[in-house]
Design a protein that fits this description.
The complex is a heterodimer of chains A (about 220) and B (about 350).
Chain A (H helix, E strand, L loop, with lengths): L2 E8 L8 E8 L4 E5 L6 H8 L7 E6 L2 E2 L5 H10 E5 L10 H10 L5 H14 L15 H13 L5 E5 L7 H14 L5 E5 L3 H5 L3 E4 L9
Parallel strand pairs in A: 3-8, 3-9, 6-7, 7-8
Antiparallel strand pairs in A: 1-2, 1-4, 4-5
Helix pairs in contact in A: 3-4, 3-5, 4-5, 5-6
Chain B lengths: L4 H14 L1 H38 L4 E6 L6 H7 L5 E9 L3 E2 L7 E8 H7 L13 E4 H7 L6 E2 L7 E7 L11 E6 L7 E6 L4 H13 L5 E5 L10 H6 L6 H18 L2 H9 L4 H31 L9 H30 L3 H5 L3
Parallel strand pairs in B: 4-8, 5-7
Antiparallel strand pairs in B: 1-9, 1-10, 2-4, 2-9, 3-4, 5-8, 6-7
Helix pairs in contact in B: 1-10, 2-8, 2-10, 2-11, 8-11, 10-11
Classes of the chains: A alpha/beta (about 220), B alpha+beta (about 350).
Chain lengths: ~220, ~350
């Protein structure tokens, strides 16, 4: 699925836009790395692409079709098309790995019993099959991020948005996470990764650099 | 497609189990709040119930009719015995003082009392039966003279008599505790008519007495037996205006505050659910299920302890009055808490998912 921002304006404070007329195109099946120093709005771009934030002006397009700003259709797109991987521990800490991986599917109306095998297969794909019944708070940082990737990919999303997914990992674990994220997606899944790490960015098809904003203009 | 409600409930249940310390804290707060609610209600209710029982035992529903101009006809008084709402009615007629052979020189007041009066003065602990002639001795006189059931009393210048019973009249008519009484069905005029009405019907009973005695042109005095300050209390009004009846509101607000504090520590979790497509309504449903578990467990523990501790032991659990008041308050507190619980989640669920996921 292609996803793009067209002439998007957004700011957290009124009259102080973070972006003005921002254009970004992520082609169908492509992987794009968003780079740039802290505070340049990498996470905000991801949130706009993931429809978690609404642009002040401009549009978000999925397969070249504008996405409605709110309502059931908007919620369905968010739930069915987009998955996230975050830098911070974005898993339920006291729950098992399997419970966490199942979350996305359950939110789509699946029954727990019916998806267990599917979730275990996803964990097998990221090398965590043996840890399926372990509590999240007993895993290492690398294992947690791979569990996040498994949770993200088990729903077969059309867009994967990853916010500094390797930010707290060493180089070896970073590569394991990237292998899982880029290698296990199906062909048409687009991936957008916000990262500081040039090695991670180099694994992507495109690199987009965001520069620090001079007030009102980028 | 979105969450199935049964899976959402299971999710809430598992979340509660996954954070045992957090769950235990909330259950502890809930049970403490519920203990306070039920204990305050039970303590208040028990005090009132005990007061009512005490005042009933002391004769708070008793009235006395006396004649200002002389003797009182006994028939209207005895007829009241069969009236609805009258527990006992009976007469008292004073006799001449007598001197007993075992205590020469000491005069003892004699008198005759109808069976209803004897039952009234003893709060029903003495039940005279027809055809059991004998004397009835007040407790104080019996103690001073060393009399007991079947003792023979020998008045000087009269025939001896057998003591049928020694009665304790200290609570309801201490004046006759030194009397020597003869149970009787009076036909001659008497000095007083004693009537006990059903609990809480004294005012209506006094009106009945006005109708019964006022119409005969007799100059009678109709008075409640006890007029102490203690009986000036209005238990029903006190019960209705008690502050503890609103304790459930405080309980609900306390749990809301705790839920709010805890929900703030769960912002990342809320953001995670939202990023997976969980709607606000579904998040609120989860909050309600989680609260329901806490209220069910913590509330039951707290309410049980509240009733037992304030009720004076496990026996309070079988006291229907105490139990109904306590459970009504506990139910109010529980329902209010469950109704308020989603508010905390709603407040925390507002704002950007991104900032929630970052724990900001």
């Amino acid at each position: 699925m292609s996803i793009s921002l067209k002439q998007v304006e957004f700011g957290y404070v009124r009259d102080r836009p973070l972006f003005e007329a921002l254009d970004l195109v992520v082609p169908d099946g492509a992987s794009v790395a968003l780079m740039g120093p802290s505070g340049t709005g990498k996470s905000t771009v991801l949130a706009l692409l993931g429809l978690l934030l609404t642009p002040t002006r401009g549009e978000v397009l999925l397969d070249d079709l504008p996405v409605p700003r709110a309502g059931p259709h908007h919620r369905r797109i968010v739930a069915e098309s987009i998955s996230w991987v975050f830098q911070t521990v974005s898993l339920l800490p006291g729950r098992t790995v399997l419970d966490n991986v199942a979350l996305g599917l359950l939110a789509r109306g699946a029954r727990r019993a019916a998806i267990e095998q599917q979730c275990r297969a996803a964990l097998d794909g990221v090398g965590l099959a043996d840890l399926a019944d372990r509590k999240i708070n007993t895993l290492s940082g690398g294992e947690i991020q791979r569990a996040c990737v498994a949770r993200c990919l088990v729903t077969a999303p059309r867009v994967v948005l990853a916010d500094e997914p390797t930010g707290q990992l060493d180089a070896a674990n970073s590569m394991l996470v990237m292998d899982a994220m880029l290698g296990l997606r199906n062909g048409s899944t687009s991936v957008v990764i916000a990262t500081h790490d040039p090695a991670v960015a180099a694994r992507c098809d495109q690199q987009v650099k965001l520069t620090p904003m001079t007030y009102g203009r980028r | 497609m979105s969450w199935r409600l049964d899976e959402l409930s299971v999710e809430a249940f598992r979340n509660a189990l996954a954070a045992p310390i957090r769950t235990a804290v909330v259950i502890g707060v809930m049970s403490g709040a519920m203990l306070t609610v039920t204990a305050s209600e039970v303590a208040f209710t028990r005090e009132l119930v005990d007061f009512q029982a005490r005042s009933l035992r002391a004769g708070s529903s008793v009235a006395v009719v006396t004649s200002n101009s002389g003797a009182l006809p006994p028939a209207p008084c005895l007829a009241l015995q069969d009236h609805d709402g009258v527990r006992w009615a009976g007469t008292l007629a004073a006799g001449s003082p007598v001197e007993l052979s075992k205590a020469p020189g000491i005069l003892v007041q004699s008198g005759s009392a109808s069976y209803g009066a004897l039952e009234l003065w003893t709060d029903g602990t003495y039940r005279p039966t027809d055809g059991s002639p004998g004397l009835v001795v007040g407790g104080a006189l019996a103690e001073e003279m060393g009399l007991g059931p079947n003792s023979i009393v020998q008045p000087i210048d009269d025939d001896p008599g057998r003591v049928a019973a020694v009665i304790d009249t200290e609570k309801r008519n201490p004046a006759i505790s030194r009397w020597l009484l003869t149970p009787t069905h009076p036909v001659a005029p008497v000095d007083a008519c004693w009537i006990e009405f059903a609990p809480g019907t004294l005012v209506a009973g006094l009106e009945l007495l006005q109708v019964t005695y006022g119409g005969q042109g007799a100059d009678v005095s109709i008075q409640p037996w006890l007029r102490s300050n203690e009986l000036a209390r209005q238990p029903a009004q006190e019960f209705e205006s008690r502050t503890s009846r609103y304790a459930w509101v405080a309980c609900g607000l306390l749990i809301l505050l705790v839920s709010l504090l805890i929900a703030r520590t769960r912002r990342a979790e809320i953001g995670l659910y939202r990023s997976a497509g969980t709607t606000t309504a579904q998040l609120l449903f989860m909050a309600q299920v989680e609260t329901l578990q806490v209220v069910a467990v913590g509330g039951a523990i707290g309410a049980l302890w509240g009733i037992v501790l304030a009720g004076g032991g496990p026996a309070a659990l079988s006291d229907s009055t105490v139990l109904s008041v306590a459970l009504r308050s506990a139910l109010c507190a529980g329902c209010f808490t469950v109704a308020l619980a989603p508010l905390a989640r709603l407040i925390v669920a507002r704002g950007s998912v991104v900032s929630q996921l970052k724990g900001e």
